[in-house]
Design a protein that fits this description.
By secondary structure, the protein is α/β, with parallel strands linked by helices. It contains 25 helices and 34 strands.
Length: about 800
């Protein structure tokens, strides 16, 4: 029974439950347990989870009987108090549970999984009652005693495995136990050393004399003494077992013989998986007058402002200013978080930072495996002389266990890739980083050539500091922008494939001059869709209302929403015709077509399809940097911050794609993307050229890009935003309602809107079907709510929660899903 002295802990479970769950703390754990510890608890009837201790108290829950915490997983907490405050803010602001934040925040290697194990019942004797499949499993279990469900599924047809296990349980042949599986295992390496007795030279000589009759063992020991420099050093060098055996070409048996004679000892040591390249450190470059002026202004703004916007044209040398600021911060013993929107960017900038800061720099992104991410986590957590002082990473880096942040740099702050779309929490890393910085009393620097409307608005209204860099590094000229009118060119039959005459001419000139070219098309694959020229049939995804994209390399049609694939049909599946034509073009088709015009050119493609492997980014960027590639074709990942000296021509192949998207941010994204891509051209002495292909040369956004005119673009957009009550004047919450029955969805979404309209009135838009109104067999409707800045955002969210929960618990809507996206992009 619980008494007044019993301690309780509120626990964050890795589940989407709205409240924390309370467990009692066994007396033997009371002196050990702390906030931020991982603990093993049982939730439900059988499932075990690793959970996080949120707080410890004496208040026994009144509504339910508490279970005991089973054990503590860590010697010291892996989550600090500032992180827990940060998690609570994310949970409240982005309308999700703390458990969902926990799942997003921790690397998989620190989240233990409950793995079902099947254990052989040794008292079982009725083997004659088993069928062949059951006998196979029991035969293996008799030898191994334990199998997981995954292992059983690999032995027999996986669809039958659960029924076979159920039958074996019913026959008392096996029983089930839930055991925690730790997915992170430290990397252990075996080393060899001499026992202390033989550190005495007389004893060592006696041992060597005895081994004369075993020449291979003698050679092995002498080789160890040589490799460890034992005779020359008071502290011998460590020698791995692998290195020793390879040097002598000896077997494990020879080494084990020496171990049995107590001549050598084998021991294990945990080593890091992370590659630490030895780099000769360099001094950071001296800032030029413009950079120095900007640097001093940032320092001055940081006195009174927590956040400063650095608005610098492309190639103005923003990175050198970042490096100088990082130097200042780590000199005080504090940590720096340097956020980038894409993994691709880390491959270039990491070398610049490591050349200056060496092993103080750590990198954190999804291309690292689970175990490596755990090691990075621990190297930030430990806060000793071996810890990382600078973390370079993508959006998930905000969750690392910083304890002493001094500066957060958010490079390319305008990028929509900072926003997490799925799964929850649907957070924006830039906005979260600002909150994180304030929790640590750190300063935040937003850097970009094309600020987001919201950030520029905040700087204009003095909420943020503002620093401008208007000149390129070494006073390099901004590129010349040329508009190619594709509508006219198609009418006059001047277009060759997807390329205007002016683009092809400039590519040819650049290649003759041994210069490089970037071609941008923000659509991957070979063709957006296939169409039957006879009946007009277009292959669509079976699970989503979207046409399938044709990928020539794989010779299949692919859904970019759910991954559904279809072999390339030889015939139209509607009328049987063989006249299937590709429509439109993606990066893969451009790669094929450009090779026809320039067969001698070395061409590479950089998109999601070519960068799936771990080091693909590094390989493509390195090849382009080293002039092993003449023409680089890519999606938006080539637009951001990459620095190539020899790029003379940038071609934007279809500006209309971006401009005509039905979204209030379409103009902003188009302007930013085109200006950022343009910035890749002419980053050395010779002026670059940008050719923008469009069927609408008179579009105002094209005009702003031509003149590199951010101010006019901003003034144009801010009027539109104010007129139609969009950010930064109003906050937005997008509600997505999902159901597998379209009729049920229509009724439920109308009911939800009708319940909300009395509160939100004209500020509520919808319900309406989005452009893609079915994904993975779920039909979708959306409601958009605009909330004025002077209205209570938290009250609005509370009401949305309450109303949506009432609707979901209505009898007819059992499978209804309601998803909230705060500040949608």
């Amino acid at each position: 029974m619980d008494n007044k002295n019993t301690l309780f802990a509120d626990i964050i479970l890795p589940l989407p439950i709205p409240k924390l769950y309370t467990y009692s703390i066994p007396s033997e754990l009371e002196q050990k347990i702390k906030t931020g510890h991982r603990v093993i608890v049982q939730f439900g009837k059988k499932k075990l989870y690793s959970a996080i201790v949120c707080n410890i108290h004496n208040n026994k829950p009144e509504k339910y009987k508490t279970k005991k915490i089973i054990s503590i997983l860590d010697e010291k907490p892996i989550i600090n108090n500032l992180q827990l405050k940060f998690w609570k803010w994310i949970s409240e602001y982005y309308m999700c549970s703390l458990g969902e934040v926990y799942k997003a925040a921790l690397p998989s290697g620190l989240k233990l999984e409950s793995e079902t194990k099947i254990i052989y019942n040794e008292s079982f004797s009725e083997h004659k009652n088993l069928n062949d499949t059951e006998y196979l499993i029991i035969n293996i279990l008799e030898k191994r005693n334990i199998l997981t469900i995954n292992e059983i599924s690999s032995l027999i047809e996986s669809s039958k495995s659960l029924s076979v296990i159920k039958n074996l349980i019913n026959k008392n042949a096996v029983y089930v136990v839930e055991k925690i599986k730790d997915s992170y295992k430290p990397k252990l390496v075996k080393y060899v050393k001499l026992p202390d007795d033989f550190k005495n030279k007389k004893n060592l000589n006696t041992l060597l004399d005895k081994l004369q009759k075993a020449p291979k063992q003698f050679e092995l020991l002498v080789t160890y003494l040589t490799l460890s420099e034992f005779l020359n050093n008071k502290t011998p060098k460590e020698v791995t077992k692998k290195e020793l055996l390879e040097r002598v070409k000896a077997t494990d048996q020879t080494l084990n013989s020496l171990v049995k004679k107590n001549a050598l000892i084998i021991y294990e040591k945990e080593v890091g998986r992370l590659k630490e390249n030895i780099i000769s450190l360099k001094k950071s470059s001296k800032l030029n007058d413009f950079q120095a002026k900007a640097y001093n202004k940032i320092k001055q703004d940081f006195i009174n402002k927590d956040v400063t916007l650095l608005h610098g044209v492309t190639s103005s040398g923003k990175t050198e200013i970042y490096i100088k600021l990082i130097n200042d911060i780590i000199a005080t013993g504090k940590q720096v978080l340097y956020l980038l929107p894409e993994i691709a960017l880390t491959t270039q900038i990491i070398n610049r930072l490591k050349n200056i800061f060496g092993k103080k720099v750590g990198i954190y992104h999804s291309k690292f495996n689970d175990s490596e991410r755990v090691e990075i986590w621990n190297k930030v957590l430990n806060n000793d002389e071996n810890s990382y002082k600078v973390i370079l990473g993508v959006r998930s880096s905000i969750f690392l266990p910083f304890n002493n942040l001094g500066l957060i740099i958010i490079d390319e702050e305008h990028e929509n890739t900072y926003k997490q779309f799925d799964p929850v929490p649907r957070y924006h890393a830039r906005d979260c980083a600002i909150v994180l910085g304030k929790l640590h009393n750190a300063k935040i620097l937003l850097g970009t050539a094309t600020p987001s409307i919201e950030s520029y608005y905040n700087s204009k209204n003095k909420k943020f500091g503002y620093v401008e860099l208007t000149q390129r590094y070494k006073e390099i000229q901004l590129p010349e922008v040329i508009i190619a009118d594709t509508k006219t060119a198609y009418r006059k039959k001047q277009m060759k494939s997807f390329f205007s005459p002016v683009l092809l001419e400039n590519i040819e000139t650049a290649l003759k001059n041994k210069e490089q070219v970037i071609l941008f098309q923000n659509r991957r694959g070979y063709s957006p869709y296939l169409e039957c020229s006879v009946c007009g049939w277009i292959p669509e995804c079976e699970h989503c209302n979207v046409s399938l994209t044709y990928h020539k390399y794989f010779n299949n049609l692919n859904c970019h929403y759910c991954g559904y694939t279809l072999n390339n049909p030889a015939n139209c599946l509607a009328c049987g015709s063989t006249s299937m034509e590709t429509k439109g073009f993606g990066t893969e088709k451009i790669e094929d077509e450009i090779a026809i015009f320039f067969p001698e050119a070395k061409i590479a493609r950089m998109d999601l399809d070519t960068t799936r492997s771990r080091y693909a980014y590094q390989r493509i960027i390195s090849d382009f940097e080293n002039n092993n590639v003449d023409i680089l074709i890519g999606t938006q990942m080539i637009s951001k911050g990459l620095d190539f000296d020899n790029v003379r021509i940038v071609g934007i192949l279809n500006a209309d794609n971006m401009l005509n998207y039905p979204d209030f941010r379409a103009s902003e994204r188009s302007f930013q993307l085109m200006l950022q891509v343009s910035g890749r051209a002419g980053r050395s002495e010779k002026r670059g050229k940008v050719i923008i292909q469009t069927s609408n040369p008179a579009h105002p956004i094209i005009h702003f890009v031509m003149n590199n005119d951010y101010i006019s673009f901003y003034e144009n957009q801010i009027k539109e935003r104010k007129k139609f009550n969009y950010p930064p004047f109003n906050r937005l919450i997008k509600i997505t309602i999902k159901h597998k029955n379209p009729e049920t969805l229509n009724i439920a979404s109308k009911q939800l809107a009708n319940k909300l309209k009395p509160i939100f009135g004209k500020r509520l838009l919808g319900p309406q079907a989005p452009v893609i109104n079915r994904i993975q067999n779920w039909y979708l409707k959306t409601i958009l709510i605009k909330i004025e800045k002077d209205k209570s955002f938290s009250k609005a969210k509370t009401y949305l929660y309450k109303t949506s929960n009432e609707l979901k618990h209505t009898k007819d809507y059992g499978n209804l899903q309601i998803v909230f996206d705060v500040d949608p992009m």
